[in-house]
Amino acid sequence: MPPNLDIDILRTLATAYRLGSFNRAAEALGRSQSAISQQIHKLEDRVGHKLFRKRGRGLELTESGEVLLGYARRILELNDEAIAALAGASVAGSVRIGLPGDFAEKWLPAILGRFKRAHPTVHVEAAVDKNALLVERLGRGKIDLALLLGSGNLGGAEMLATLPMAWIGAPGMLRKKNEPVPLVLFEAPCQFRAAAIAALDAAKIPWRIEFTSPSLAGLWAAAEAGLGVTVRTTASIPPHLANIGNACRLPKLPSVQLGLHSGTRPLSKAASRLRDVLLETLPGELVREGGAVRKK
Length: 296
Description:
This protein folds into three domains: 7-86, Orthogonal Bundle (Arc Repressor Mutant, subunit A); 91-162 and 257-293, D-Maltodextrin-Binding Protein, domain 2; 163-254, Periplasmic binding protein-like II (D-Maltodextrin-Binding Protein, domain 2). Helices cover 41% and strands 22% of the residues. The protein contains nine helices and twelve strands. The strands form three sheets. Strands 3, 4, 5, 6, 9, 10, 11 and 12 form an eight-stranded mixed beta sheet that branches. Strands 1-2 form a two-stranded antiparallel ribbon. A two-stranded parallel ribbon has the order 7-8. Helix 1 packs across helix 4 and helix 2 packs across helix 3. The radius of gyration is 22 Å and the shape is globular.
């Protein structure tokens, strides 16, 4: 018979990779560094392969480690889903969540699908809109939870990560010297629009608004068509577009915080459970997308 993999050790493997070191994994899991190292060595002995190698001050997976990590994530997801389904059997009702378009298509559907499988009697309503409109809806009690970019001054916030902004355009796009940078942006007010213009003005680089759209899909389409460059976070770059800031010699942009907000009203049991699932899952997703997770 093949050896059984220990769920606890698989979680250590996934955490050590996500955080980039045994030290940080030990802190996150409430164990000593030596205990974490022993667990990894035990797992290596069990599977017969080296899983990590040193890279500078951090760690990187070996090829065998990458293969095992993929299976570990699937095993952990099924384990956690089973526990959540049993714990959430009595959870019912509805929950309304709002989020910007940056996160509506890339990975949030999988997270919401996981929640729905664990809580099949809960009705989940998701609203995709601009930050300002989501803040308004949250304040009026029209949504229970909201993922917001750069709205840390609101009450009921759990700051998740700091995400770098990026100049995003069609791969291979180049900026001709002395020509204005063509911008593809939302109408004002928009923090990404303001950041783009401020950075170009500070660098004394001419610019022009080439295209505006009320939807993020419109900005992506215009950028893909080569009409210009837009600005969003590195976590939301579609596969057919690229970070072209260096190639086009564009100035450095600031970062923006991503937070999960629940407003000032008490949350229902269903909304509280969705909030917990998002807080458990989102940080790992954001690390893989290039964000810096905010330490507790």
